[in-house]
């Protein structure tokens, strides 16, 4: 079984030798490559008469990207969790009299937010400026992966929130307090989901 | 669209930080709450030690200086952690006494603010006391 690297090399050699794309496709189909594999492999080379064949840009992986995006999404995750905790505890205090024990959680959550929120904002705005200046950064595979992971986590949280709400409804626990708390989770997770969903759509449109 | 979301995110965090700090109070307030907790906890251990249950023919001490060690009970602070004044010990009669401390914050504020025990006796000012009676089976 030939690897994709060999497929790519074969196509380059075939194009250099002056074969047409239709001939190459036929040859590869005979060899057992699937249609999508052939299209992907051919797309890696620009359709120009220029020889040798011109490669199209590919996704990149860099340690710098990993550092920046892992940091951004880590800060986002921790910050979002603590934002939800602080707001939920505040809601609890609205409804319950004896809440001294949760004061520590508010203090800790606020401490996290004071560190995480400005850092996240700075990282995100800085990255946006860099993307606007250098579109090559759009091809960062790590950026793409972490964006989709953020989407996945946000979607999972939203679904869990929905399930919890329906469960509370069925067990008769759907109080105003519960609805407010579920609403907070929905608002934070939904906001994050929309934010990254829009970013991806905007990128695909470009 | 994303600009709106980003601004909304900033507002939400600002509300959480602002409301959170408003509810829990600043550092000075937190320190006073902690000191008051320490005082109330001191009163509890001090009262246990003075009462020293399980020891036969024990007489209540006349003053804090006379408090003898009580086996099984930990040593207790006899002085206010901040002012270093001794806690007020009053022998009410042969079998009962009370210990009092002056708190930094008004103990009559709602319980959600201060973690005070239920058996505290509130006196005038910010003074709270714990009373014990020797014949009480449930004194704490």
TrEMBL record, chain A:
Keywords: Membrane, Transmembrane, Transmembrane helix. The chain crosses the membrane at residues 66-91, 106-125, 145-170, 176-197. It holds the Pfam family DUF5671. It comes from the Bacteria. Residues 65-194 form the DUF5671 domain. This is DUF5671 domain-containing protein. It comes from Sulfitobacter marinus.
TrEMBL record, chain B:
Residues 57-82 are annotated as: Disordered. This is Uncharacterized protein. It comes from Sulfitobacter marinus.
């Amino acid at each position: 079984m030939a690897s994709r690297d060999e497929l790519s090399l074969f196509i380059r050699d075939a194009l250099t030798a002056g074969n047409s794309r239709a001939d190459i496709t036929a040859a590869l189909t005979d060899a057992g490559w699937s249609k999508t594999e052939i299209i992907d492999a051919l797309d890696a080379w620009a359709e120009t008469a220029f020889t040798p064949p011109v490669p199209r840009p590919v996704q990149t992986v860099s340690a710098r990207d990993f550092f920046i995006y892992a940091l951004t999404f880590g800060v986002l995750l921790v910050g979002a969790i603590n934002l939800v905790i602080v707001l939920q505890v505040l809601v609890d205090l609205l409804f319950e009299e004896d809440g001294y024990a949760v004061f520590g959680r508010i203090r800790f959550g606020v401490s996290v937010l004071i560190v995480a929120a400005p850092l996240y904002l700075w990282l995100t705005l800085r990255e946006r400026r860099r993307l606007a200046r250098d579109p090559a950064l759009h091809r960062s595979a790590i950026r793409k992966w972490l964006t989709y992971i953020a989407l996945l986590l946000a979607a999972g949280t939203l679904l869990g929130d929905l399930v919890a709400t329906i469960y509370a409804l069925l067990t008769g626990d759907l109080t105003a307090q519960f609805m407010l708390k579920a609403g907070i989770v929905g608002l934070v997770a939904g906001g994050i989901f929309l934010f990254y969903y829009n970013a991806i759509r905007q990128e695909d449109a470009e | 669209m994303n600009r709106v979301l980003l601004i909304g995110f900033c507002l939400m965090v600002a509300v959480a930080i602002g409301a959170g700090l408003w509810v829990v109070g600043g550092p000075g307030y937190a320190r006073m709450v902690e000191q008051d907790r320490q005082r109330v906890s001191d009163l509890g251990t001090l009262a246990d030690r003075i009462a020293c249950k399980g020891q036969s023919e024990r007489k209540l001490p006349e003053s804090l200086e006379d408090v003898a060690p009580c086996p099984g009970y930990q040593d207790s602070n006899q002085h206010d952690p901040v002012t270093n004044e001794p806690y007020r010990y009053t022998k009410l009669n042969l079998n009962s006494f009370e210990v009092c401390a002056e708190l930094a914050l008004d103990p009559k504020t709602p319980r959600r603010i201060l973690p005070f025990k239920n058996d505290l006796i509130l006196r005038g000012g910010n003074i709270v006391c714990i009373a014990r009676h020797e014949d009480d089976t449930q004194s704490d």
